[in-house]
Write a structure and sequence with these properties.
- By secondary structure, the protein is α/β, with parallel strands linked by helices.
- The protein has a domain at 55-137: 2-Layer Sandwich (Nucleotidyltransferase, domain 5).
- It contains three helices and seven strands.
- The chain has helices spanning 19-40, 89-94, 113-125; strands at 55-56, 68-71, 77-79, 82-84, 103-107, 131-133, 136-137.
- The strands form two sheets. It has a five-stranded mixed sheet with strand order 4-3-2-5-6, with helices on one face. Strands 1-7 form a two-stranded parallel sheet.
- Its main location: membrane.
- It is found in: Cell membrane.
- Pfam families: ExbD.
Length: 138
């Protein structure tokens, strides 16, 4: 007569899943994305008032973020995002770290051409060698 033998193995204990195990990779990815955008993104200081640039058909992309002066439709000025009085413009020009570097001018499209021309002449008199008038592409 045949004998019956038990060849069964003891049960393997199952590992219980912990909710933290699933969250850690997500946190890692979020921090990597945060670091990526902090390193690759350029933070631009916006002027304290709305400036709508004029449009142009042909525009060249700029490589860096040089110093800029914004002028609103009503003639208000902002130096690197900080509102300034027109009388303080000469002082800001004298404090430039690199006077030979170009100065970007972000003029509102509704600004009178006469006011812009006077501002450009004042910038030239203040020692700005190169002025870049920023516009938007159509």
């Amino acid at each position: 007569m045949l004998k019956q033998t038990d060849f069964s193995l003891p049960p393997i204990p199952r590992r219980t899943t912990n909710a933290e195990d699933n969250v850690l990779p997500l946190i890692n990815v979020v921090f990597l994305l945060l670091i990526f955008f902090m390193v690759s993104g350029t933070l631009i200081q916006e002027p304290p008032f709305a400036v709508t640039p004029a449009t142009t058909r042909h525009a060249e992309a700029l490589d860096s973020q040089p110093e800029y002066l914004a002028i609103g439709a009503d003639g208000r000025l902002a130096w690197m995002g900080e509102a300034i009085e027109p009388a303080g413009l000469a002082e800001r020009l004298a404090q430039r770290e690199q006077p030979e570097a170009p100065l970007q001018v972000r003029a509102d499209r509704r600004l009178e051409a006469r006011v812009l021309t006077e501002l450009l002449a004042e910038l030239r008199a203040g020692g700005v060698a190169q002025i870049q008038l920023l516009t938007e592409s159509e």
